[in-house]
Amino acid sequence: MGEKQWITPVESHMVSARQPKPEWLKVRMPGGAEFVRLTDLMREQSLHTVCEEAHCPNIAECWSAGTATFMILGEICTRACGFCAVTTGKPAALDLGEPRRVAQAIARMRLRHAVVTSVDRDDVPDGGAGIFAETVRWIRRLSPGTTVELLIPDFAGNWGALATVMEVRPEILDHNLDTVPRLYGRVRPKGRYQRALELLRRAKDLDEDAYTKSGIMGGLGETREEISQVMRDLRAVDCDILTVGQYLRPSMKHLPLARYYHPDEFEAIANEARGLGFRHVEAGPLVRSSYHAERQVPGREGAP
What local confidence, expressed as pLDDT, does residue 279 receive? Predict the structure, then answer.
């Protein structure tokens, strides 16, 4: 195919809500015995998954394969990011029994690799870092063969909270930039681009053996050069793993979609990222932060 032309902010137009999705974005509906079993297990343990809360398009593939991303610290977020389907509001008190229940579910699922993420909890002093750490401790006790990836919020720049998380030595520490700096004001209004980069840099300083990871979305109005600059910024703080996926508007209340990226464009981004030195890159229309996460663990067969 010929070279793709990237749309600049001046040339861009918002995709109509009535415009059908491209063929490459169509996925099968969740189903099957394993999917039902995992759903029942989550409800039995009163657990939440980002797979459900964020309307992830890969839920059928991942859950049917026996993997899931656990969402701790409740289901109500204190922030209102323009792209996110998770409910915003006043959260309930922290559930101190949650870490053990997550670990019990992971043990019952016999996971080789577990991903744990959360809502933002700006209402508590440490942003929930202590619950993250306790969750990892329980996973180590109940499922010692399971490697752990933590996808954390920015803790509002509380570096002591970050140190609490890094003390339990997750194999992968993930914090997503989500978009380019020019768009932060409307995509992540309470986030700060430089603060996110600083978090990734400090995480590597706290544990040089941990792999750091980040992700961005295409389709919010960014330019190709802006994507390239984000990738260079991530490599400048020694980020190891990158995910790049397509933004899909959760509802009419969320930010409009500027454009769909063709799979060839994602392939070009992935090739550029590998050239910059990322150890592992996942880029594609349906890629989300935890997609193929088990393949990214240091030392595992097929991992970087």
Answer: 95
Residue 161 included in any domain: yes
Angle, helix 193-206 to helix 159-166, in steps of 10 degrees: 40
What is the domain range of residue 276? 26-296
Residue 303, in any domain of the structure: no
pLDDT in tens, 182-193: 999 999 999 999
Query: 148: which strand partners?
Result: 114
Our count of domains for the chain comes to: 1
Question: Residue 87 corresponds to which tokens in the numbers above?
Answer: 């409910």
Q: How far is the C-alpha of 259 from the C-alpha of 227, rounded, in Å?
A: 15
β-pairing, 69-72 vs 113-118, is: parallel
Distance CA 301, CA 106 (A): 21
The span from the CA of 248 to the CA of 219, in Å, is: 8
> What is the pTM assigned to this prediction?
0.85
DSSP state of 92: P
Q: List, in sequence order, every residue forming a beta bridge with 116; answer none if it has no partner.
A: 70, 150
In a domain, 264, yes or no: yes
Examine the pLDDT at 6 and tell me if it is beyond 50: no
Which two three-digit tokens encode residue 290? 């935890």
By the 10 Å C-beta count (0-12 exposed, 13-18 middle, 19+ buried), 27 is classed as middle
Output the domain CATH number for residue 115: 3.20.20.70
Reference 166, options 153, 154, 155, 150; nearest CA is 150
What amino acid is encoded at 186 in this protein? R
Q: Which residue has the tokens 């309470």?
A: 190
C-alpha radius of gyration, the chain, whole number: 18
Q: Give DSSP secondary structure letters for 46-87.
A: T-EEHHHHTT-TTHHHHHHTT--EEEES-S-BS---TT--S-
Write the pLDDT tens digit of every residue in 143-164.
999 999 999 999 999 999 999 9
